[in-house]
Amino acid sequence: MNLNKLQPSLLHHLPIVIVTSLKMYFRATLLTAGLLPLGNALPRPQLTYDENTGPVGGVDPPFPTFTAAVGDLRGSTDLQGGIASRPPTSGGDSAVVPDPELVNGQEADADLGLYLDFNSATAPNGPQPIRGGLGGTDPGPRTFEYEKLNPDLFAPPGTDSGDVPNAMWPLGLSHNRAGIGNESGWARQQNTAVLPAATEMAGVDMRLAPQALVLKGSVRVAAMNEDGASFIDDVTAGDVWFFPPGIPHSLQALDEGCEFLLVFDDGNFSEEDTFLATEMLLRSPKEVWAKDLEIDVSALDNIPQDQKYIFNGTPAPADIEKQNITGSAGALSGPTGYTYHWSQQEFHNTTGGSVKILDPVTFPIADMFSAALVVLEPGALREVHWHTTSDEWSYFLQGSARITVFKAPESSRTFDFTAGDVGYIPQAQGHYVENTGTEDVIFLEVLQAKKFGDISASQWLALTPRQVVKDTLGFSDDILDKLPKDKTLIKPGNANLTALAGESS
Ligand SMILES: *[C@@H]1O[C@H](CO)[C@@H](O)[C@H](O)[C@H]1NC(C)=O
Ligand SMILES: *[C@@H]1O[C@H](CO)[C@@H](O)[C@H](O)[C@H]1NC(C)=O
Ligand SMILES: *[C@@H]1O[C@H](CO)[C@@H](O)[C@H](O)[C@H]1NC(C)=O
Ligand SMILES: *[C@@H]1O[C@H](CO)[C@@H](O)[C@H](O)[C@H]1NC(C)=O
Ligand SMILES: *[C@@H]1O[C@H](CO)[C@@H](O)[C@H](O)[C@H]1NC(C)=O
User: Fold this and answer.
1) Which of the listed residues 30, 99, 126, 504 has the most CB atoms within 10 Å of its CB?
2) Which residues form the active site (predicted)?
């Protein structure tokens, strides 16, 4: 399987000679090879399909069938208000929801803000937008699956306030671009078109078909820099490659194919605008290409006239040396190489979960890209924090989680996430990630920064003069004694909602 694609000419036109299976991004890209297979574990909530039943909008299904059209399309002018008879004030089409089912935690104090698991709230009434003494029943019509997946949008914690731009996009709602040929692959994206707040970064989830070779779930990466120094390497699930702007490269899926995630440093990036090798050759005179490539004009006769995006290609040889081409400028490796074998890095393990960080400190070619892969146990929290210079682009690989985005001075909104969802938090806006499910949450945090870092809210309070914190927040010395002065990144927590709901009542 080959990917034949050049990236959009958003910035400048670079003279790159491309043949099939080469591609080039005009913007810097961070590609996380095969991270997605981790996400195969099913997220909670797992939904069964149910829907509203009964009359809707005064129409009572099922509709009768007619063999010939009957009835007028428009009604009488006698139905105008003031002329027509009025409906009864009661006993007509009722908006009363009989016996609304409230789930565990829904009656607890709204400011406690417990995660609500709506899975037990089924037809006919479904989940209700009620929390503590807030909200009210919803007679519909609606599709319960949305509310079950996004309980914190439907019944927000009482602490949510004001307006915060949407910070969540499920890639499951992105349009898929299919590759040419049986099982060749596909790509789907998140950019400003679907998530307008995500101005600085965009993401693409891509699948390339397998080839029958020895390596498993791997990709062969090849690239060249301005000096003509070349690079080739094979990466596997959990590894990363990075291409600075304008560096042309090729990707070949090996053996079992691959699925990978691309992060772009431009929220407007679109896979639909890709700069294709075939198009490049078709858009300049053949005479010029014959001169440029030092070939006969007739050699250009077989260039496909249609775009080739993802398509089936010739299998790559298992032996990487067979594809290793080096010029007089030599080969790139180590600090000048374009890959990092992140899957081989051990996690930093702490109470409640694990973290590993990849940034230019150890992967210098990835100039302004920093990432953390975080594992949260059920109930655990990626602590409340913010990033000082960069927006955060995040991607959920497994589990169910929620994030509250705090936007100064006084707005906040809580969003729910499951596997395959993208999150976006603007620079300096406070947030946390809480595991709201019964299995580990695995997610990726990506920053545009030379070093991965954040400001921890609890560490800030611990390292601020005590009198100032006491005067501002009313905390006692006992409470302040317990604040850790070292950043923990993750805080363990109780996953038992019943216990938490009980504590509040
Ligand atoms: C597509 O490829 C799959 C896997 O190689 C194969 O099982 C299937 O028969 C193919 N389908 C068609 C229509 O060629
Ligand atoms: C993205 O597109 C919007 C609307 O066209 C434009 O205002 C903005 O400057 C673009 N951003 C970048 C980084 O190109
Ligand atoms: C490719 O060839 C160059 C030059 O011989 C060598 O330095 C480099 O290590 C080779 N790369 C691989 C992946 O074998
Ligand atoms: C971290 O945890 C993982 C999984 O539990 C374990 O395999 C690994 O050895 C631990 N790493 C360290 C540095 O303790
Ligand atoms: C959760 O907490 C409740 C109340 O404390 C307790 O009755 C229940 O056994 C707990 N459930 C689990 C799975 O530990």
Assistant:
1) 30
2) 445 (proton donor)
57/39 Cα distance (integer angstroms): 41
**Which CATH number fits the domain that encloses residue 452?**
2.60.120.10
Range of the domain at 326: 8-31+183-274+309-340
Residue 226 pLDDT more than 90?
A: yes
Quote the mean pLDDT of the chain.
83
Token output for 489: 């990144």
> What token pair was written down for 430?
């406070």
Q: What is the number of the ligand closest to the CA of 350?
A: 4
Q: Is the CB of 182 under 6 A from ligand 1?
A: yes
Catalytic residues: 445
Residue 325 and residue 404 share a domain? no
pLDDT 10s digits, 343-364: 999 999 999 999 999 999 999 9
Q: Which residue in this structure is represented by tokens 């602490």?
A: 159
The answer to whether residue 267 sits within a structural domain is: yes
Same domain, 230 and 249: yes
Contact criterion met (CB below 8 Å) for 407 and 431: no
Q: For the chain, how many structural domains are there in total? A: 2
Q: Are residues 267 and 382 in the same domain?
A: no
* 463 CA to centre of own chain: 34
385 is in an annotated binding site: yes
Per-residue pLDDT tens digits for 26-43? 344 444 433 333 333 334
Kindly give the distance from the C-alpha atom of residue 497 to the centroid of ligand 5, in angstroms, as a whole number.
8
pLDDT score of 11: 24
Torsion sign (Cα): 388, 267, 152, 138? positive
CB 311 within 8 A of CB 4: yes
In this structure, the residue with its CA closest to atom 14 of ligand 4 is 349
248/330 same-domain check:
yes
327 with 412, same domain? Answer: no
**121 in a structural domain:** no
What tens digit of pLDDT does each residue of 103-133 get?
A: 999 999 999 999 999 998 887 889 999 999 8
Residue 175 lies in a domain: no
Each residue of 202-227: b (16+ CB within 10 Å) or e?
Answer: bbbbbbbbbbebebebbbbbbbbbee
Q: Does residue 198 lie in a domain region?
A: yes
